[in-house]
Design brief:
CATH class: Alpha Beta
Number of strands: 17
CATH architecture: 3-Layer(aba) Sandwich
Radius of gyration: 19 Å
Oligomer: single chain
Length: about 300
């Protein structure tokens, strides 16, 4: 297709605007949590895979951590099982854990790997049980109960939290020109499997890798105020205020906590961006304005 010379200056501007960011991030690790509509829409899936391959080709080391909630929900519905969520986390009994492992560690993980490889990348699919990569323990959730005038302990089943990430595996893969694609399943000391929120896994991986950026894809423009305005440039203290006043609730809580924990662990910046926007990862990395909510 011939170049549209009327649009050529805009194309050139985009390319030159990206140059300093490519130079800045070359040789650095960027962790991307992949989820939401970006995992469902066929065009967005292809855009995401191309973005990841491009990042690797210009010398950045992307690590992908993926979710798969809709795909899990679909299979659970087929077997007649209803889901229950507490504070954005899926209650996971033994039967549900089997489904989670099949969907996340198998179907979804391999689809992402295949898509990245089809665009010229060298993706390697992993769950936290490989290596083992992600050590975990059972998550204990305590919630204030007005009726009991005390903390209520909620049993989420096979829901876990990360206790350690094996950096050696990720260093070996990224330095070997591979792109790790991680399913958020952890393994306990006794060999038990744990379903872990993908945002929290991405945050832990970013902290361990001392990533330059943590990028969390979601189905909103970012963190929104109660009036619908995009909030950005947030500090830990400001985030605490937003949680206290009820601006940050439910499904956004794991994303915010992942971002805060990653920054506290040494990650330079964390971003919550709209995965429904085509090439949103590149827009965040390689443009002056960026998109979404920045937490630093």
């Amino acid at each position: 297709m011939p170049i549209d010379f009327n649009n050529a200056p805009n194309i050139a501007h985009v390319l030159t605007e990206a140059l300093p960011y490519i130079q800045r991030y070359q040789g650095k690790c960027v962790v991307i949590k992949y989820g939401g509509n970006a995992m469902i829409d066929e065009v967005l899936k292809s855009d995401f895979a191309r973005d990841i391959v491009l990042m690797k080709l210009v010398g950045i080391h992307p690590i992908v951590v993926h979710g798969g909630g809709p795909q899990i929900e679909l299979l659970l519905a087929k077997i007649g099982k209803k889901s229950k969520f507490v504070e954005g986390m899926r209650v996971t009994d033994s039967e549900t854990m089997d489904v989670v492992e099949m969907v996340l560690g198998g179907l979804v993980n391999k689809e992402i790997v295949t898509l990245i490889n089809s665009h010229g990348g060298r993706a390697i699919g992993l769950s936290g049980k490989d290596g083992p990569l992600i050590h975990a323990k059972k998550l204990v959730l305590a919630r204030q109960s007005p009726e009991l005038y005390a903390s209520e302990i909620i049993d989420l089943g096979h829901v876990g939290e990360v206790t350690a990430v094996n950096r050696e595996i990720l260093d070996y893969l990224t330095q070997g020109n591979f792109i790790p694609v991680i399913a958020p399943i952890g393994v306990g000391d006794d060999g038990s499997s744990y379903n872990i929120n993908a945002d929290l896994v991405a945050g832990k991986v970013a902290g361990v890798m001392q990533a330059e950026k943590l990028v969390l894809l979601t189905n909103t423009p970012g963190l929104l105020s109660k009036t619908g305005d995009l909030l950005t440039g947030l500090s830990a203290s400001r985030v605490a205020e937003l949680i206290e006043d009820g601006t940050i609730t439910e499904g956004m809580l794991p994303k915010i906590n992942a971002a805060l924990n990653a920054v506290a662990a040494g990650v330079k910046r964390a971003h919550i961006i709209d995965g429904r926007v085509a090439h949103s990862v590149l827009l965040e990395l390689f443009t002056d304005s960026g998109i979404g909510t920045l937490i630093e």
